[in-house]
Amino acid sequence: MATPKTIAEWMLEELKRETILSQEVVAHEVSLLFGEEFTRTNAKGQLVLDERVLCEFRKLTENMVISIGGERAWRLKR
């Protein structure tokens, strides 16, 4: 059964494999693979990750990942 923590762990593995993780793409993948309860639609009509998943991802990657704000993506620190 998926939890916000297991999804965050999956996201980190995807990031390691892809080098850049698009928030838009990962939100759609999470919705399809783990269920719509882990995503939501924001005020702009965009599918985004649920705050519980984002919180777990931040905890897991605190010193490892940088947010690329303008691109709505993450990458590993160099």
Q: Give the helices and strands as they follow along the chain.
A: HEHEEHEE
So how many helices?
A: 3
Low-confidence stretches: none
Q: Please, what is the oligomeric state? A: single chain
How many β-strand stretches? 5
Strand percent estimate = 15-25%
Largest sheet: 3 strands, antiparallel
Mean pLDDT: 95
**Rough shape?**
globular
Task: Give the N-to-C terminal Cα separation.
Answer: 33 Å
Spatially, the strands of the biggest sheet line up as: 1-5-4
Structural class, please? alpha+beta
- Kindly state the percentage of residues in helix: 40-55%
Q: Provide the gyration radius in Å.
A: 12 Å
Q: Can you lay out the helices and strands and say which pair or pack?
A:
Elements: H1 4-18, E1 20-22, H2 23-34, E2 39-41, E3 47-49, H3 51-61, E4 65-68, E5 73-76
Antiparallel strand pairs: 1-5, 2-3, 4-5
Note down, in words, how this protein is organized.
This protein is α+β, with helices and mostly antiparallel strands. The protein contains three helices and five strands; from the N terminus they run αβαββαββ. It has helices at residues 4-18, 23-34, 51-61, and strands spanning 20-22, 39-41, 47-49, 65-68, 73-76. Helix 1 (4-18) packs across helix 3 (51-61). The longest helix has 15 residues, at 4-18. The chain is globular. The model has no long low-confidence stretch (mean pLDDT 95).
Summary of the model, kept short:
The chain has three helices and five strands. It is of the alpha+beta class and 78 residues long.
